[in-house]
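User: hey, got a sec? need Kinesin-like protein folded
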Amino acid sequence: MAARGARTGTLHHKEDTPAEPAGKRLRTVATGRQPLAAVSAAPPPLAEEPVVFTGRDDVETLLNEKMKGKNKMDYKGKSEQMMEYIKKLRACIKWLLEREDANLAQIGKLSADLEAAETQYSEKVTQLQNALQESKETDEELQKRYASLQEALKKVEAEKMDALRSLGDEKEAKLAVESSRNEILEDLTKAQLEEKRLNHQIETLQVTNKSLQDYNVDLQTYIRTLQTDAEKHADTISKLQTEKTIILERLGNVTVQAESLKVQLDLAKSLQIEAAKQKDDLLKEIDSHRSELQRVRGDRDNKSAQVDYLLNELRRYEEMTRKSVVELDNAMAKSTSLDETCSSQREMIKALEIKLAAATEKSKWSDLTTMEVMTKHEDQKKMLADLQSRLEEAEQKILDGETQRKKLHNTILELKGNIRVFCRVRPVLSNESGAVTFPKSGENIGRGIELIHNGQEYSFTFDKVFDHSASQEDVFIEISQLVQSALDGYKVCIFAYGQTGSGKTHTMMGNPEVEEQKGVIPRSLEHIFQAMQVLNSQGWKYKMQVSMLEIHNETIHDLLSTNRVATQDGGSSKYNIKHDANGNTHVSELTVVNVTSVGEVSSLLRRAAQSRSVGRTQMNEKSSRSHCVFTLRIFGVHSGMDQQVQGVLNLIDLAGSERLNKSGATGDRLKETQSINKSLSALNDVISAIATKEEHVPFRNSKLTYLLQPCLGGDSKTLMFVNLSPESSSTLESLCSLRFAASVNSCDIGRARRQIHA
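Assistant: Yep! Here you go:
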């Protein structure tokens, strides 16, 4: 009871007892150890055997047992039955007391184990903090030594880089010298080949020149011979011309004599014929001399042209000979300069080789120093890595201790059977003033919340409190073990409660398209499918079924139905809620879809989001106007172990509570607001009845509470998110939400039962 009281919240002032709703019947159940012990102390009859109770079924059978008699006046029979019934009641009370003592002993043992674990955890934390402090000091010292070594290493590396740079420059210079040397050698080889070619050409020219000189001598001899022949022919021609002149003179004389000697014609005919013959002979001889003269003239012209050509050739060869001699002189001079350059280059190469040997020796010493520094650096790195690994081991031990503490805490909560409550506060907007604070010291860090309303401070404590800086991933990490329970065969229910605009839909759904903004529903599905892949490798085979509905104006709508219009036009009356003997809930005619991957479920979530009823109010531009229930049924089979499990995961986003004067709702929105507030009020009544252990719990007062009956009054693992708006204008609604959450946290619904079949 002390543990329960810690969760109901402690007020810093005395609160007024709220008025009970009109027409509500209150019934006080007297509970206490002393009367039950007195009843159990009455001695039973000696003649009868004691009644033994073995379980809850025997108790329910006893409670359902009715008095029977032969007739109304059979008081003796009824008295005997009453005595027998009292005897059974005593045995039942004794069995209940023994069971309660056993539970209290187990709770005490677990509390002692938890205190021992917390003590051990605090000691380990202290030791680890001391070790961490020592490791930090060692790390700082190592960092300083590492910094000094880094500076020394930088200096050595700088010297090494200078040496490498100078070595590189020397290597480049050596390569340049070798390249120039190779080029010079190539030029020298080419010059030598050119010199050989020129020498050969000079020899050829000399031979040609000699032959040309011989030919020139022969030509000059032939020219002189031709000139002599020409002179001879000229004398002959002059003689012939003289003879011709004489002949012409004679012909003239003959003509004159002929004219004078016509008389002597007959006598002279023979002389004339003879003269004619001589004339013909002379003419023939003259023609032959003329042709011979022309031939001699042609030969003379040919010989003159040939002499001119030969003279030109001789002059050209003489010019070429002079050029060859000049080129030969230039080549010899170039060869001499190349020899001088090669000798100077050889001397330079020798000097560079001496410098290179010195630089190589210096580089060897630098490499040895660098290797020593690198060895020391590697040792320091190994030591640092060892310290880092020890630090990681210490952090892992801390995480393991925290995980063990959470498991023990969850075990105690499961043994108590309480509904777990997480509180989440959305961030303060720029135009809002905050009225919520969180403890910064003490045992309530991460579990406590403080609200200021009308100048007074109210403190509450829950299983976990998330401030405005908590991410979606931080929230899911805290509930991941609860989600995992669905795969293990448990019924799990997580629902979000709070006023409009407090962040319920963001917590449950978020934005599935953005990784950082995914809410509880998409992250739970990803976690289940990832865990299912691991369990598949261990022999488990799973089948998943998804359904999704909303309760709008006390009417159920199928969000996965393909015929949405028909559903809105009155088809919702076919959806009836039924609970079977095993505590499972079924809604008739509701669409159930088999899924095999996260992608398929995400597609169904998008379809359902488009069908859900939303509207705009003064408190929220996009307010959820219905209660949304997402159900994932998990069927697992392990053929090797011949075992079957059946789990259910219910994720519920409740519509936000709101005051009519603040929401400004009218018309359909007014009707929706009234319906939402009525269903949430019915939920409050159910929680109050469970908290006060009333005999009758009004689950049927609304479809929401009737749908949640297995989660609130059965063997389910249940967690509630209470979402708060931190603004000062919403403190009254926040205070009501916190009080309701404290009532929920105090509800004892019994231990969760795993649904497993052999």
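Quick note: The chain is about 60% helix and 10% strand. Let me know if you need anything else on Kinesin-like protein.
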